[in-house]
Amino acid sequence: MANTPYPQSYYAASANAVPPRPVLQGEVETDVCVIGAGYTGLSSALFLLENGFRVTVLEAAKVGFGASGRNGGQIVNSYSRDIDVIERSVGPQQAQLLGQMAFEGGRIIRERVAKYQIQCDLKDGGVFAALNSKHMGHLESQKRLWERYGHTQLELLDERRIREVVACDNYVGGLLDMSGGHIHPLNLALGEAAAVESLGGTIYEQSAAVRIERGANPVVHTAEGKVRAKFIIVAGNAYLGNLVPELAAKSMPCGTQVITTAPLGDEVAKTLLPQDYCVEDCNYLLDYYRLTSDKRLIFGGGVVYGARDPANIEAIIRPKMLKAFPQLKNVKIDYAWTGNFLLTLSRLPQVGRLGDNIYYSQGCSGHGVTYTHLAGKVLAEALRGQAERFDAFAGLPHYPFPGGQMLRTPFAALGAWYYGLRDKFGM
Ligand SMILES: Cc1cc2nc3c(=O)[nH]c(=O)nc-3n(C[C@H](O)[C@H](O)[C@H](O)COP(=O)(O)OP(=O)(O)OC[C@H]3O[C@@H](n4cnc5c(N)ncnc54)[C@H](O)[C@@H]3O)c2cc1C
């Protein structure tokens, strides 16, 4: 039987200890079978258990094996597409609901951490950094827009103020969101999994769903067992493959890479990010970074369309890090890894229902730490018969990538190359 371990990341190396979890063997019966133990699956499972459902989670590898255990750890509010774009593509009532929910995921994470005592190095404060005046203008209008929906923990930073929070000369200003912040992402997932189990939920690892028998009483099959359920939640995101062909057509797995330095020591760390906020810049192909609790710099950036694993990650990401922090030129890189997120053409999440009893949420296109936690709540609400907020997401229009399965990767890469050029020339 295949045993898929975590990738060799800083997070796997510093993960909290967890008990071994069983492989599904034989037949079990439950109310909800959740496919995938990332944040979407775990958040759904937790909200459902808190509302009296019986829940069984199937994970192909290990809890947090996917993006949820490999990401930059940045609690970034809102969606991968601005709310004004949403306002232009859906009706006012739907836009109102989506706008109101834009900062809820960050609150859910904090509630989870507090309620279940999750040790995941949670820190408040995230900065969007502007590289030019166009970015700054965008952040100013973004702040006005978010405030219109009641999200007010935001402070514009001028050139002098941003120097106080990031020792990088490249920025002309920024926006500080004190309801953003950062976490050790794998430890958050592991803590949520422990919370699921504390409420009576079961998680099977190394137990990939290989087939779904649809119908009034659906059954999810794994290599050695099956789960009979009233409902199924599909939460496999970029790692789902073709289990649900309807979902694969309108989304595309993409890779993004992260490096982690050796410990920098308190003094050096403080000179880089004195308030310990996380930072992402405003480019289309953006860089993101933060400190860990043991004072390493975690730096991510770049996108590989079609999710191929690059041969030398350090060679891709280190130059980006040195552009932001040339003072780190002699610092050793201890870890480098890649992970997949799921892109949709609109960059908005793909949410919906297949038949009466199969629900899904995926494709938050890069910014998903907060959205996936919200998704769990919204999916649980829908299963309880309160579908207003679920319908607001499910009503977002989605289109296949141009070029179909064969050509979508080069087409998307071409689009990204164009946006990369715009980033480079500050257009
Ligand atoms: C390198 C990287 C950096 C990122 N940085 C940030 C960041 O800083 N901030 C931010 O907001 N977002 C970030 N993201 C995005 C964010 O991590 C994701 O949007 C989010 O974690 C997705 O969660 P998920 O539960 O939907 O999917 P995943 O975490 O990918 O989980 C899906 C799970 O389903 C399992 N699975 C798949 N198929 C099956 C099957 N058939 N049967 C059983 N199990 C299955 C997989 O093994 C996996 O564990 C980043 C993503 C990556 C890859």
Topology:
Layout: H1 10-13, E1 26-35, H2 39-50, E2 55-58, E3 74-75, H3 83-89, H4 92-101, H5 104-115, E4 123-130, H6 133-148, E5 154-157, H7 159-165, E6 173-182, H8 185-198, E7 202-204, E8 211-213, E9 219-221, E10 225-234, H9 245-248, E11 252-261, H10 266-272, E12 278-281, E13 287-291, E14 297-305, H11 313-324, E15 333-343, E16 350-354, E17 358-362, H12 369-383, H13 388-394, H14 404-424
Parallel strand pairs: 1-2, 1-10, 2-7, 4-12, 10-17
Antiparallel strand pairs: 3-6, 4-6, 5-6, 8-9, 9-10, 11-14, 11-15, 12-13, 13-14, 16-17
The protein binds flavin-adenine dinucleotide (FAD).
Flavin-adenine dinucleotide is lined by residues 35-41, 58-61, 65-68, 70-74, 76, 208-209, 235-240, 243, 256, 258, 288, 300, 339-341, 362, 364, 366-369, 372.
Describe what you observe in this structure.
By secondary structure, the chain is an alpha/beta fold. It is built from 14 helices and 17 strands. The chain has 2 domains: 10-70 and 186-250 and 346-396, FAD/NAD(P)-binding domain, CATH 3.50.50; 124-182 and 252-343, D-Amino Acid Oxidase, subunit A, domain 2 (D-Amino Acid Oxidase, Chain A, domain 2). The strands form 2 sheets. Strands 3, 4, 5, 6, 11, 12, 13, 14 and 15 form a 9-stranded mixed beta sheet that branches. Strands 1, 2, 7, 8, 9, 10, 16 and 17 form an 8-stranded mixed beta sheet that branches. Bound molecules: flavin-adenine dinucleotide.
